[in-house]
Amino acid sequence: MTAVTGYAPGEVAQRTGLSLDTLRYYEREGLVGPVGRSAGGQRRYDEDDVAWIGIVTCLRDAGLGIADLRRFTELLRAEAGADDRVAFLRRRRTELLDQVERIRAAIDVLDGKIAHYATEP
Amino acid sequence: MTAVTGYAPGEVAQRTGLSLDTLRYYEREGLVGPVGRSAGGQRRYDEDDVAWIGIVTCLRDAGLGIADLRRFTELLRAEAGADDRVAFLRRRRTELLDQVERIRAAIDVLDGKIAHYATEP
DNA sequence: CTGCAACCTGGAGCGCGCTCCAGGTCAAGC
DNA sequence: GCTTGACCTGGAGCGCGCTCCAGGTTGCAG
User: Fold this and answer.
1) Could you give the count of Cα atoms lying within 13 Å of A94 in the half-sphere of its Cβ?
2) For the packed helices A47-61 and B82-119, what is the interaxial angle rounded to 10 degrees?
3) pLDDT at B121 over 50
4) Residues of A in contact with B106 (CB under 8 A)
5) Is the domain of B63 the same as that of B115?
6) Domains in chain A, number
7) Is the peptide bond before B34 cis (omega within 30 degrees of 0)?
8) Are residues A5 and A36 in the same domain?
9) Are A18 and A57 in contact (CB under 8 A)?
10) Which of A19, A31, B19, B114 has the greatest number of beta carbons closer than 10 A?
């Protein structure tokens, strides 16, 4: 009689753009969940799970590795150690800013070549 | 009587920050060279080689893949096809800008978490 | 009750970008 | 000439981040 609650794996895959395999992989690696299960043992994701997967995906897309994201997940779960937590977050932030700088440098290189070939065919 | 000209592999490794193995790997993959050889078959890099390796390294650091860089190298060598060339360069440029956007989004996520934990320990 | 799609697990496989190794050659100083 | 260190080649190995597969279970629709 209880309404079936949460999202089935296929639904989550569709909403997040991840594959079922990746969703399971992230869970194994501790980036997500543990996700709730139905009586029969099938996964049911709740709103929080889906929102968290969105955050993880965003950080993955920016280039953070699985190990970083595991640590991120663990730190945000832990009660204590807010200092560690903030220090970790700031370090990642700095790394991302550095990466933006590297990309800017590369764009400058490309612009140089584009200018060269666009004006002198 | 001819002075020994160019740079030995070890020297180039030091100047570029790449390993000897990576230098050879890039050459095999067509990202660099072919590099000149001494009478005895050992590599001698000239200024242009070193400069080009710098460009390749810059683009690698920004996240371009080996296949992209091979294509980049081939296109800049080819005489014809300036249109292809510029189109290719612009495409990579756009991809890099997209990546900057993804990183910005990730930084926003981190900032949100930092703000949260910095104010509420 | 049956059928079928969606799901489960454990484990193998893959593409990328190096990195390491064995077994040899080259080159410069003594 | 000999030693020593830098270099050569071909090929195997590795860490990462998935992706695929076999063989089986679940669960909804008709």
Assistant:
1) 6
2) 130
3) yes
4) 58-59, 61-62, 64, 96
5) no
6) 2
7) yes
8) yes
9) yes
10) A31
CA gap B92, A50 in Å, rounded? 32
Measured from Cα to the C1' atom, the residue closest to D25 is A40
* Alpha carbon distance A52, A33 (integer Å): 9
- Domain containing B62 equals 1-77
Q: How confident is the model at residue B1 (pLDDT cuts 50, 70, 90)?
A: very low
Q: Is B36 helix (H, G, I), strand (E, B) or coil?
A: strand
Cβ atoms of A74 and A38 closer than 8 Å? no
> What is the mean pLDDT of the segment spanning B77-82?
75
B48, B8: one domain = yes
Q: In chain B, what residues touch A59 (CB-CB under 8 Å)?
A: 106, 109-110
> What are the pLDDT digits (tens) for A38-50?
999 999 999 999 9
How many angstroms separate the CA of B9 from the C1' of C3? Answer: 67
